[in-house]
Design brief:
Elements lengths: L1 H10 L6 E2 L15 H14 L5 E6 L4 H9 L3 E3 L4 H11 L2 E5 L2 H10 L7 E4 L10 H6 L2 E4 L11 H10 L4 E4 L5 H6 L2 E2 L2 H10 L5 E5 L2 H10 L5 E4 L6 H4 L3 H13 L7 E2 L5 H14 L2
């Protein structure tokens, strides 16, 4: 989707051109944090705490301006697979993390590092000081932006209960963008890549219930047919990812061949946003 194309454009070498087959393919979660709200929150948090000790961490599922914000403020981006490593890095650089835009990835990562709910604060951008008191902000070790992925918050505790009843011997794995109460009941949690590896590593004949975007689950089910049984925890789809299909990919390639005046969907990030965002993305890439 669009934030992925932007990231590719930021990291592209001179002479490389980036296209997205459908410019309308966005991300509702990425839209939940815009630069003006984040800068306002950063100012409020800094006035209460010590701004030099707060490290901004930005989930890669976000717009380029937010990546640039992290780059120029001593922070970094992270993926769902290396969030834990980047949290450790951030704590080596400062005392407090300001994480956006996905509260659930931030909360689940914090718990894996041994932090408790008392160490976390949910910042609500529509409210003054995020709906918190100055003391709550000073006490928090991780300040989480109120944002979420609608695909992964679709999964509920009841879905885990039903899966346990239907498949008593199954293993259940969910994505870390899933709410904490669901993650706690699953057997494992992991990024898209980690989910794929988890499924592939199970003993032959296993049943694995997967809580993530349905098209990945269906692909895994087809791929593992005859070896494993892969079942969706619930049917939750991302309509934006599905906009990138073979038809508009073919159309994009045809227009590239026809010459620059026919190009559609070209993605470019202007300066200084590109160079500042590149700092945050390169810090992310250092950790895999």
């Amino acid at each position: 989707v669009h934030f992925m194309a932007e990231s590719a454009a930021i990291l592209a070498r001179p002479g490389q051109t980036v296209f997205i087959p459908d410019p309308r393919a966005g991300c509702p979660m990425a839209d939940m944090a815009d630069i003006s709200d984040v800068e306002k929150a950063w100012s409020e948090i800094g006035q209460v705490g010590n701004p030099g000790k707060i490290i901004p961490l930005n989930y890669v599922n976000s717009e380029a301006e937010l990546k640039a914000f992290c780059g120029r403020n001593g922070g970094a981006c992270c993926t769902s697979s290396n969030a834990e490593k980047l949290f450790k890095w951030a704590f080596s650089q400062g005392e407090k993390i300001f994480f956006f835009p996905d509260e659930h990835l931030g909360r689940n990562t914090s718990h894996r590092l041994g932090l408790s709910e008392n160490d976390l604060l949910l910042y609500q951008p529509e409210m003054k000081l995020g709906g918190a008191t100055p003391e709550q902000i000073r006490r928090a070790k991780v300040i989480l932006w109120k944002g979420y992925c609608h695909v992964h918050t679709f999964f509920k505790v009841e879905d885990i209960t039903k899966a346990r009843q239907a498949f008593p011997s199954a293993r259940i794995i969910v994505h870390p963008e899933t709410p904490r109460e669901v993650v706690e009941l699953a057997d494992a949690t992991g990024s898209t890549e980690q989910i794929i590896k988890y499924v592939e590593s199970q003993p032959k004949g296993s049943t694995i219930v997967v809580g993530t975007e349905i098209h990945l689950v269906e692909r895994l089910a087809a791929q593992e047919k005859g070896k494993h049984t892969v079942v969706a925890l619930a049917r939750s789809a991302c309509p934006n990812m599905y906009k990138i299909n073979l038809a508009n990919l073919a159309l994009t390639l045809e227009r590239i061949e026809q010459g620059e005046k026919y190009w559609v969907g070209r993605v470019a990030v202007p300066e200084p946003t590109r160079s500042e965002a590149k700092v945050a993305l390169e810090r992310m890439l250092e950790y895999g």
